[in-house]
Write a structure and sequence with these properties.
It is a single chain. By secondary structure, this protein is an alpha/beta fold. It is globular, with a radius of gyration of 18 Å. Helix 3 packs parallel to helix 4, helix 7 runs parallel beside helix 8 and helix 8 packs across helix 9. The relative contact order is 0.16.
């Protein structure tokens, strides 16, 4: 299948943010139905997690199914990014296993290569992935070497397909923050297609800067944004207004950084009430964007700067026992 060009990403300001929603928050819906609900609510894009119930890349007839999803996205006017945080797609017993850090990462690398090909065929703006949690028996240096080698294989696939990668720092994983992403990118030789996926909640959870400053720190390489509320030191994706983030300065920072990609709601634990949560989320973000439109540049002072030696290095509590919530 010939890969189409990425779906349009017109210039935006904070009042016309390109809002999307993650299908991992619609796990109880058929993909067609989830896409229709999101389009009806006014979302302009979708963060599509490839999973057993949503475009399984290992099931038969992948080319045909990808073509059908592409037609559906076009019919609904939805842009797309590809997410790869499926919990039990690769191993029915162990969440997210194998990762790039396991003794045999073959199935993970194949999954990511397939995700890149699907992303190319759908005209995705980015394909997002992460490091994984280091298995206890694996020494840190071994895990790092495996991560670099695995990412290099994915970068090669992305270069061949002409696809942009967004690597996501995840609390509790081997690369959990912006500093870790920078180290990884340098180890890979600063590849042009190796950008960053920034989860706004993660910034509040553990980064040493206010959330708007996190946006500015990575603006040059920002290719994908996930958005949710969160509390300091707790990796738990929360509905907007139930955590600690002040969102208008964050959205103003995205505007000031010139970010043109999707800003996709990341609420993977809310599928039981997906339509209602999605409706509340877009209303909240539209109101926050309207307030952000009135803000000038450099709104970092809206949140206190956390000391790198104190709050910023506090232990992150991960409610599901050290594994990613996404």
């Amino acid at each position: 299948m010939t890969a189409p060009q990425p779906r349009s990403a017109p210039p935006v300001d904070a009042s016309t943010l390109r809002l999307g929603y993650g299908t991992n928050g619609f796990a109880n819906h058929r993909l067609d139905d989830a896409l229709a609900v999101l389009a009806d609510l006014g979302y302009v894009g979708v963060a599509l997690t490839l999973d057993h119930d949503h475009l399984d890349p290992f099931a038969p007839g992948l080319i045909r199914r990808v073509a059908a999803v592409s037609r559906r996205l076009d019919e609904l006017g939805l842009a797309v990014v590809i997410e790869t945080g499926a919990r039990y797609l690769l191993d029915p017993w162990h969440k997210h296993a194998p990762t790039l850090l396991h003794d045999d990462p073959t199935r993970r690398i194949e999954f990511l290569r397939r995700a890149v090909r699907v992303g190319a065929d759908l005209g995705a703006e980015a394909v997002s992935f992460w490091a994984g949690v280091r298995p206890a028996p694996v020494p840190p240096q071994t895990a790092w070497d495996r991560l670099v080698a695995g990412c290099a294989a994915v970068v090669d696939a992305a270069d061949t397909a002409g696809v942009t990668l967004g690597f996501e720092p995840e609390p509790g994983m081997l690369v959990e923050d912006i500093a870790g992403w920078r180290r990884l990118r340098a180890a890979l030789g600063d590849p042009a297609r190796f950008g960053i996926t920034l989860d706004i909640g993660h910034c509040r959870c553990l980064e040493p800067w206010p959330v708007p400053q996190c946006v500015h720190e990575v603006a040059e390489h920002l290719v994908n944004v996930q958005i949710d509320d969160m509390r300091r030191g707790v990796h738990e994706h929360l509905e907007f207004g139930t955590g600690e983030i002040d969102f208008p300065p964050v959205l103003a920072a995205l505007r000031d950084a010139g970010y043109r990609g999707l800003v996709a709601v990341e609420l993977p634990r809310d599928s039981h009430a997906a339509p209602a949560v999605a409706a509340r989320s877009i209303d909240f973000l539209r109101a926050a964007a309207a307030r952000a439109a009135g803000l000038g540049g450099n709104e970092d002072s809206a949140e206190p700067l956390c000391s790198a030696s104190a709050d910023a290095t506090a232990t992150v509590r991960i409610p599901d026992g050290g594994r990613r919530l996404g």
